[in-house]
Amino acid sequence: MGETPKSTSPDQSKMQLPGLAGKRIVVTAGASGIGFAIAHSLFEQGARLAICDVDADALQQASAALGGCLAILADVSDDVAVAHFFDKVRTELGGLDALVNNAGIAGPTGGIEDLSPFDWRRCIDICLTGQFLCARQAVPMIKAAGGGSLINMASAAAKHGYAYRTPYSAAKFGVIGLTQSLAKELGPDKIRVNAILPGIVEGARMDGVIRDRAEATGVTVDAMRADYLKNISLRRMVTAQDVAATAAFLISDAGANLSGQSLAVDGNVETLKAQMKT
Fold this sequence. Notes:
alpha/beta, 7 strands, about 15% strand, Rossmann fold
């Protein structure tokens, strides 16, 4: 998990976005990485949070840093665990105003003929089916609240085909379809549905992706990292805080007329072209 904030109270010196204070918000995989950054940003805006994750130790630390928020161990690909989590949300928060479908995994790296069906299904189950399972639990509560917001985490891989990361890219393209369909379905109920497409987010997870992809394509890690950066117009990776700021804006009243959108937070990724073996 990223550095834990020292304070467990919202920082009132931060710029306040309208309509976030008191909002009841779920962030999946909220104990570390982008999920924790989103949860912490919303906490600083005065939101009431519930998070889930598969890492018990990280959950405990995150909950403490987020004012003792509801934190439940749950794998989003497990429909029973997801139902249990949202039952707790209903009991503890009394309802829900927004869901951030953040949970996901990098998935396997390799040529299509080398991928196992198990690894394919695991990636789809967590990155795509998990968002469906959480949305179907969250939507009745958000409808009962009179409307709200869903954010589905996609990826730059949902705009560009991604060689050697086919399961991940396929799942994230599916997230865009889920988002656009739900935006049309739920709009009359005053529920806004948007996708965020992070680009290359600096951190340990991206380091692992670069390392695995370098091995799969037969180049050095440094060469693969340089190859990623040259395909970003701004020539830099984004941070988890960049993604968190976008999520907070979309949930707030400032994003009241944004729905059905796929918002790239990526420095303008031009392509995800792979270096090939020579």
